[in-house]
Amino acid sequence: MPKPLTDQEKRKQISVRGLAGVENVSDLKTNFNRHLHFTLVKDRNVATKRDYYFALANTVRDHLVGRWIRTQQHYYEKDPKKIVNGWQVEEADDWLRYGNPWEKARPEYMRPVHFYGRVEHTPEGVKWVDTQVVLALPYDTPVPGYRNNVVNTMRLWSAKAPCDFNLKDFNVGGYIQAVLDRNLAENISRVLYPNDNFFEGKELRLKQEYFVVAATLQDIVRRFKSSKFGSTEVVRVDLSTLPDKVAIQLNDTHPALAIPELMRILLDTEHQTWEKAWDIVTRTCAYTNHTVLPEALERWPIDLFQNLLPRHLEIIFEINRRHLERIANLYPGDHDRLRRMSLVEEGDQKKINMAHLCIVGSHAVNGVARIHSDIIKATLFKDFYEVDPHKFQNKTNGITPRRWLVMCNPGLAEVIAERIGEDYIRDLGQLKNLLEFVDDDSLIRDIAKVKQENKLKFSAYLEEHYKVKINPNSMFDVQVKRIHEYKRQLLNCLHIITLYNRIKKEPNKNWTPRTIMIGGKAAPGYHTAKLIIRLITAVGDIVNHDEVVGDRLKVIFLENYKVTLAEKIIPASDLSEQISTAGTEASGTGNMKFMLNGALTIGTMDGANVEMAEEAGEENLFIFGMRVDDVDAMDKSGYDAMEYYNRIPELKLAMDQIAGGYFSPDQHDLFKDIVNMLLHHDRFKVFADYEAYIKCQDKVSALYKNPKEWTKMVIHNIAGCGKFSSDRTISQYAREIWGMEPSLERIPAPDDPRQ
Ligand SMILES: *Cc1c(COP(=O)(O)O)cnc(C)c1O
Prior knowledge:
By secondary structure, this protein is an alpha/beta fold. Helix content is 48%, strand content 12%. Pyridoxal-5'-phosphate (PLP) binds next to helix 21 and helix 22.
């Protein structure tokens, strides 16, 4: 009689039988051995029990992968739309559900980051003690250059609770709490705050900012020491040459804590004098400002700082004391100037002005378009410009022509290459050679043909993924960017309503057909931005179902706007809407993407639009509306929205329709907050530019009827794009701020014999 099977043997039989039909036992063994060899890099001589376990787990997982992907696809396809009943609805984006194949964890470079605690001043120096520690685990992503054999590293950090996290709680029986607190620690790197141009003073955000800064600075110092001495063992190294090897470019004020953190390392760990440390810090750091909107500027309450980063607060106070001493010497008795320039803002709640900290702690400060750099010198940072004019620079933003032309619009890239060769891809200034062909009928034809192909392709995409049919022969009039009052999607919306009313009034006129597409995300807590989306979808509902209008006007709101959608819609666009109130858009980069892809711009003299008009010729853009000086003058004289409303009949009609429920028949007062804002407290002066905008749009419609002239203007724009390559931007940062010259050495390919 056969011996009865043990439980383990039974499970083994069942599991092998369970796999029958999928693969046989010998395939299973082969795959197990393959994983042991290739995945775990072990053979049977050295494999541990854990290696066998992982090899088996991987073998089994292979069987799940097909079903796993299919299930996720199914969920994705069945997903309810983001936009629900015309409103933006957020959903979690679990983008790591499939893992991230590009990143490589580097646990060997894990670093501790300290929070909370208190400061002890001892004869041996300053000590930051009784801190809570969170570990920073680095993940490296390769960043390849364009056909130059260069692969740089982007190092990101993930928060990890240490093994002994809150062990003292554990000892007193707080086991559950200790485990829960581990999660709190790891929350630091779990979420990205979704605001655009808005400061939210949450402790978790300050923790995130310090976490990234502290991890990165430890990494910088470790790498600097090992590059100098081939070892991290050297405890005391002279860091005075740090600025010769390292540049820290503060991308907005979010990493501003790098300044007090580097001071802390130099003072408390490296035992440098204040003067020496400050010299190293200011020669290493530089600051890029990205906005002048006051609600976007970081001002952290001192109480938060005192609790979370007590040593950094002490250092900031000392930076401020010395800074104000200098200002007081330059301007004796000017107390108001000291108040304006202080790093500490007085008030009910004292706050640290992070932009002021960045300017004082940096050797260079820049804006991101010429007009913006001029504005910060004249207004936001005027006092600082007066004492240190040499610090202030401009670095106009740029975009990469690889992604934003060659990859997303291969048809256009090819048409250009046929005329001027391929070198323009690395040297975008060469696009000006296209001007030679501006009257060449074959180029005009080819450019128009590529645009039409892109429009057909995008129409098919919209039909498949958004279930809407559009007229590919209409003008594609596109405004895609974050939804924000200063970007004035509402001005676009008023134009839509005006066009609609005109078509209804004179249905037999030869109107230029338009498909107006607006896309972008609102910050989840920004009520007005969400209501703007609701208004656009409501207007679309009325306009798109009006039989009198037909396919001469369609309004589409593009939900879930992101880079992958930008890469599809921008090559298909005819008209690019860049209509912010002059003085509010620091640069914009969307404007440049459209220009490079053969769309014409309707825009204000704001941000990089100014330089685009300069490069392409102002006559080749549709520029309208108030200049910065006009806006400033109006701020002094007072902006009276009612005056425009009462004087301009088409504006009054559009507003009365919005206010009266024409676009929201089920809820007449749905848009009352927008109406009230536009009429009574509109910071961005939408009505003041309405007339000029509508007139300019009329010119756009007229030119669109003349495809040849339109396309010639497009060629002038493409030819004028050279300045807006990020290659130019980065080389200016390198030469003019970081003090570097490009290396002429070429890195050999891995299979190159010279090495
Ligand atoms: C380029 C880009 C932006 C920036 O657009 P602006 O018009 O400059 O505000 C925003 N979102 C996405 C997805 C982009 O590709």
